[in-house]
Here is the input.
Amino acid sequence: MKISWTWFHKLGSPKWFYAISGRLLPWLAVSAALLLVTGVVWGLAFAPQDYQQGNSFRIIYIHVPAAMLAQSCYVLLAVAGAVGVVWKMKLADVALQCAAPIGAWMTAVALVTGAIWGKPTWGSWWVWDARLTSMLILLFLYFGIIALGQAISNRDSSAKACAVLAIVGVINIPIIKYSVEWWNTLHQGATFTLTEKPAMPAEMWLPLLCTALGFYCFFGAVLLLRMRLEVLKREARASWVREEVLSSLGRRAAR
Here is the structure.
């Protein structure tokens, strides 16, 4: 049985990506808004207090989704880097360059909210805990990829350098994930996993699930927006871009 790889080659087509991303964007944006509003309001206003941490635990509804997304985003960078190096897909470099700033922001949010959470819990804004230190390294890796992308003027050289750094740096992700188990750390274990029953009651983890899904939908929407803009910049001279612009102007005039 012969396997068709047409779908895979389509992923490298800027024209196909621009068309399909335009259809996905509204769904992702609406889903992100609904999930985030539901999860945040439910978690901050209606979820019960934690029996040990009181109301201070509520920052979990921002901290945990941001930390999860920060790590997932870097894995995406590494996959995009590998695809770019092996199959020379330019759209993979677009994804890498556009996702890196979003991942850096999510890492920064995770670190800041973690510090706010740590002050009443540990009595300190920051400790050189294995989990916190590895998350800080993740932020520096994001900064390195962003800096490389801007410092190297040649697009092909920039793409290769960023891809290599993303692939090498992905070793930090399992360190972040298993640091609590590998070392004696202050940081608590995973709040919930896909393979185990949540330790929290449903009225506490369901809003967390909503916010986590909302963060991922938000990430998808912002990433597609950034990639669409970058694709238009890189393909400005292509005939399909001119056709798309004229079609968009025609639709606006018809309104």
